[in-house]
Amino acid sequence: MIAVQAMPPIDVQATDLTRKRYERLSTYYDRLEGLTERRYRPWRIKLWGQVYGPRVLEVGVGTGKNMPYWPVGLAITAIDLTPGMLALARRRADQLGLRPDLRLADVQALDFPDASFDSAVATCVFCSVPDPVRGLRELTRVVRPGGQILLLEHGRPANPLLGGLTDLLSPVVVQLIGANLNRRTVDNARQAGIQVMQIEELAMAGMYKLIAAQN
């Protein structure tokens, strides 16, 4: 694990605002993403096909959209910042006959001992974490040395035109649904001390990426 500097304090106000935004969205979140889920589905399958355990942490489980793709036999702990999202995830887990450890938690301050997990996984989460570097550093703490961190994330495209467009639209989208369109997630991961091993560009000139890293 790469040594990193001490983490700054959590921005409680920004975190509460993020929680409130997603709580408001939780009742219709699946309907909101109904069309885009067709594109996400094969990416989710690809992501979870790389996960090894037995101890796995899913960050930002949301309504549980990844649950159908969880590999059999893993001990999965899944967290979310928002009670409304977590309630829907519990319902989906029951429908699928799954028994994960579902917890209300903030990735910026995880209540797990060091090296608790073999893998940590997140899908389109760090676009909305108030301090993404802090959250990513927490993953390096709770994943064992030699374990893996897998991220399916969107971020600012390298293309100057598309990058400028995301810069323009991001403040509006943040106000509507809490997601930053122009996060530099790969840079944030490296700043957090994560050893990025592979980056696979998936769509929209690299806006969507599958990031595989070793702790």
Structure description:
The protein is an alpha/beta fold. It has 7 helices and 7 strands. The protein has a 7-stranded mixed beta sheet with strand order 3-2-1-4-5-7-6, sandwiched between helices. The chain starts with 11 loop residues before the first helix and ends with a strand.
Strand content: 15-25%
Number of structural domains: 1
As a percent range, the share of helical residues equals 25-40%
Strand runs, count: 7
For the sheet with most strands, the description reads: 7 strands, mixed
SSE order, one letter for each helix or strand: HHHEEHEEHEHHEE
What are the low-pLDDT stretches, counting only 5+ consecutive residues below 50?
A: none
What shape does the CA trace take? globular
Chain-wise SSE layout:
Elements: H1 12-25, H2 29-32, H3 37-48, E1 55-59, E2 75-80, H4 83-96, E3 101-104, E4 117-123, H5 132-142, E5 143-154, H6 160-177, H7 185-191, E6 195-203, E7 208-214
Parallel strand pairs: 1-2, 1-4, 2-3, 4-5
Antiparallel strand pairs: 5-7, 6-7
Helix pairs in contact: 5-7
